[in-house]
């Protein structure tokens, strides 16, 4: 009886060890973004999109390599660079080798510097930083490093597309620029000034200011200045609660011109604007879902809505991030050697399900892709946002935007001193 008990205990232990080993074989991706506080809805929706991309694009087909599943693990950084570094270390200590983040370029700058230092000091536990939305141009210019890959167009590439649209509009002669007071907001301001001055001798910037990020409860004073300036159009890089608060205030205070944005869709923003945003809100971004999505996109979107009926697939680059990472791991033949995975990502050309190609430029790790100008509307919307009847529709496309743009990146690779 004792022997049987012993054998049973050994068998049970083997099952536990086997189950643990199988779990450990998951390819884990750490999602470090706000899951609490004023930007929680933005971060939570992003986490859901990453989880869906991993399940739909990787796990439902049997995983990667020898059947390894991809698991996305959420870490709440409270939109704080300091907290982000703490969560980064927690993720590394858990053996996670892939980090995704996107909300706040200030956070991204802190992460990329910390990851570069960690990888130089700890070659046995290196990690890759997959940046899906932090668009400070410096991240793929003077602050570039081998471990950082950006899957979104940077602020300059997006502003190039926005200013093309503005200069082609004969009704715009005065522009007001406003944004959040941190690295990204400053980058948007600098790019708007540069591109408008280069492209037009008649368009005047009648206002250019920054406000505290995540701390303004009433944007009325800013909105009144915008209206009083006589501006015909507004440019803002605001996101999250700051985008909604500013945009609604501008419209409610009587501004009737177009408001050109980077992040004025989804996460409750589209529903909140509703009819008031129609004819006003413009958005620059990648990924084409309205009008005429393909059957593949329809299936992908509907599968997401089954799990998150009130959610939004408003960041199609998230599917590109997961898809390109999966392709790189398969090409490298390993998920453990992040240098091999990074080498596979460099120069990759990826066919996205949303149409077009994403090319990861090797010299600076900046994704080059089609960019679109969208408008907020309820017309010809196959896939609305926020459970509302409103969504965004493409009105203009710039193919492979910024493919010939210059970079100041001087990247040091792992085999270089």
From TrEMBL:
<comment type="similarity">
    <text>Belongs to the leucine-binding protein family.</text>
</comment>
<dbReference type="InterPro" id="IPR028081">
    <property type="entry name" value="Leu-bd"/>
</dbReference>
<protein>
    <submittedName>
        <fullName>Branched-chain amino acid ABC transporter substrate-binding protein</fullName>
    </submittedName>
</protein>
<dbReference type="Pfam" id="PF13458">
    <property type="entry name" value="Peripla_BP_6"/>
</dbReference>
<dbReference type="InterPro" id="IPR051010">
    <property type="entry name" value="BCAA_transport"/>
</dbReference>
<keyword id="KW-0813">Transport</keyword>
<dbReference type="GO" id="GO:0006865">
    <property type="term" value="P:amino acid transport"/>
</dbReference>
<feature type="signal peptide">
    <location>
        <begin position="1"/>
        <end position="24"/>
    </location>
</feature>
<keyword id="KW-0732">Signal</keyword>
<keyword id="KW-0029">Amino-acid transport</keyword>
<feature type="domain" description="Leucine-binding protein">
    <location>
        <begin position="27"/>
        <end position="376"/>
    </location>
</feature>
<dbReference type="InterPro" id="IPR000709">
    <property type="entry name" value="Leu_Ile_Val-bd"/>
</dbReference>
<dbReference type="InterPro" id="IPR028082">
    <property type="entry name" value="Peripla_BP_I"/>
</dbReference>
């Amino acid at each position: 009886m004792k022997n049987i008990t012993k054998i049973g205990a050994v068998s049970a232990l083997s099952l536990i060890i086997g189950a643990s080993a199988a779990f450990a074989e998951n390819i884990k991706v750490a999602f470090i973004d706000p899951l609490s506080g004023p930007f929680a809805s933005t971060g939570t929706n992003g986490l859901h999109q990453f989880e869906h991309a991993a399940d739909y694009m990787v796990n439902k087909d049997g995983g990667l390599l020898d059947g390894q599943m991809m698991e996305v693990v959420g870490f709440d950084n409270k939109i704080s660079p300091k907290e982000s570094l703490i969560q980064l270390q927690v993720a590394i200590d858990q053996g996670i080798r892939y980090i995704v983040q996107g909300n706040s370029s200030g956070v991204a700058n802190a992460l990329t510097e910390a990851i570069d230092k960690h990888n130089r000091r700890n070659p046995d536990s290196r990690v890759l930083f997959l940046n899906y939305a932090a668009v400070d141009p410096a991240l793929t210019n003077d602050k570039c490093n081998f471990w950082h890959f950006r899957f979104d167009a940077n602020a300059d590439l997006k502003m190039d597309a926005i200013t093309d649209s503005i200069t082609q509009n004969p009704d715009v002669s005065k522009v007001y620029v406003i944004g959040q007071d941190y690295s990204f907001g400053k980058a948007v301001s600098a790019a708007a000034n540069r591109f408008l001055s280069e492209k037009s001798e008649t368009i005047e910037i009648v206002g250019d200011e920054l406000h505290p990020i995540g701390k303004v409860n009433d944007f009325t004073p800013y909105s009144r200045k915008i209206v009083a300036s006589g501006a015909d159009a507004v440019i803002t890089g605001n996101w999250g609660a700051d985008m909604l608060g500013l945009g609604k205030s501008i419209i409610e205070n009587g501004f009737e011109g177009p408001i050109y944005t980077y992040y004025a869709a989804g996460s409750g923003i589209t529903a909140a604007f509703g009819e008031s945003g129609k004819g006003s809100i413009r958005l620059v971004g990648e990924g084409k879902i309205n009008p005429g999505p393909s059957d593949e996109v329809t299936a992908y979107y509907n599968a997401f809505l089954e799990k998150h009926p009130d959610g939004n697939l408003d960041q199609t680059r998230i599917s590109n991030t997961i898809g390109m990472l999966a392709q790189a791991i398969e090409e490298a033949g390993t998920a453990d050697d992040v240098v091999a995975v990074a080498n596979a990502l460099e120069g990759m050309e990826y066919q996205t399900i949303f149409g077009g190609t994403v090319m990861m430029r090797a010299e600076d790790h900046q994704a080059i892709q089609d960019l679109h100008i969208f408008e907020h509307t309820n017309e010809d919307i196959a896939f609305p946002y926020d459970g509302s009847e409103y969504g965004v529709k493409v009105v203009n496309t710039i193919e492979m935007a910024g493919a010939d743009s210059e970079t100041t990146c001087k990247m040091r690779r792992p085999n270089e001193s």
